[in-house]
Write a structure and sequence with these properties.
The protein is mostly helical. It has 14 helices and no strands.
Length: 249
């Protein structure tokens, strides 16, 4: 019951901001004010609970919250199996509000996939000529770990989308290919500087790095009950990669 109250309150917060009243919440939930007070206390205590649970983020737009919720739902169910009801519930808003702001499910999912996070950051990292090889590699690994862990659904879609999911993953795959090409360019630069070995192709070195990132970000948490630790895992990947790929005199 308390969970339902919290989701209804989050939906009201999305529609009316902090100005929503307990009378509005009582109408939305079908409960009396007295019952609400017994279960949640004051409105300010309720808002604090919603913030603590991540159902609302003061200052965050409803569009940002919905896209973040959709990303989590897609990560759990995939592009085709997710529903607007699930996304609305995850975002803490009413499904009617979701349809009103985003149209249908396909429009929402296309917007979700339109701007994948890693593209501009990877571009900036691998094109920075004043960054040392180790510093640039560390930044790429951190970006990769955070992205893979945060957007598991996007990663899964890039790797194994069905034909029916193609409309949602074309932009993701183009961005992924762009990021990979720039990682290959970085590897070639470091091979030329005799930081990385030359007896393997730059493409193979890029695949080695991406494989390590995927294992630490996805396989470890999912199958080994090993929570992601970006700082520690970055250092572990750095060591493994340089042990395998460092240039030997």
């Amino acid at each position: 019951m308390t969970e339902d109250i919290h989701h209804a309150a989050a939906a009201l917060y999305a529609e009316a901001g902090a100005e929503f009243t307990l009378d509005m919440l009582a109408t939305r939930t079908g409960l009396s004010r007295a019952t609400l007070y017994r279960r949640i206390g004051s409105k300010y205590r309720l808002i604090a609970a919603l913030v603590a649970e991540g159902l609302i983020r003061p200052g965050e737009s409803i569009e940002q919250r919905v896209l973040a919720a959709a990303r989590r739902v897609v990560g759990q169910y995939g592009f085709l199996a997710c529903t607007m009801d699930e996304i609305a519930r995850e975002a803490g808003i009413g499904v009617a509000t979701l349809y009103r702001r985003f149209g249908d499910r396909e429009s929402l999912l296309l917007q979700l996939s339109a701007e994948p996070p890693p593209r501009p950051v990877v571009r900036q990292t691998v094109s920075a000529t004043d960054t040392d090889a180790e510093g640039a590699l560390r930044q790429m690994i951190e970006i990769g770990l955070r992205y893979a862990a945060h957007d598991r659904g996007a990663v899964r879609a890039i790797l194994s989308a069905s034909k029916a999911e193609e409309p949602f993953v074309q932009t993701l795959r183009r961005a992924s290919a762009d990021a990979f090409d720039r990682t290959v360019a970085y590897m070639r630069t470091q091979q030329g500087a005799k930081v990385l070995r030359n007896d393997e192709s730059a493409e193979d070195l890029a695949m080695l790095l991406n494989g390590l990132i995927m294992q630490f970000a996805l396989f470890g948490p999912a199958y080994l009950d090993r929570p992601l630790d970006v700082e520690a895992d970055t250092e572990a990947i750095m060591g493994l990669f340089f042990n395998a790929a460092a240039h030997s005199a």
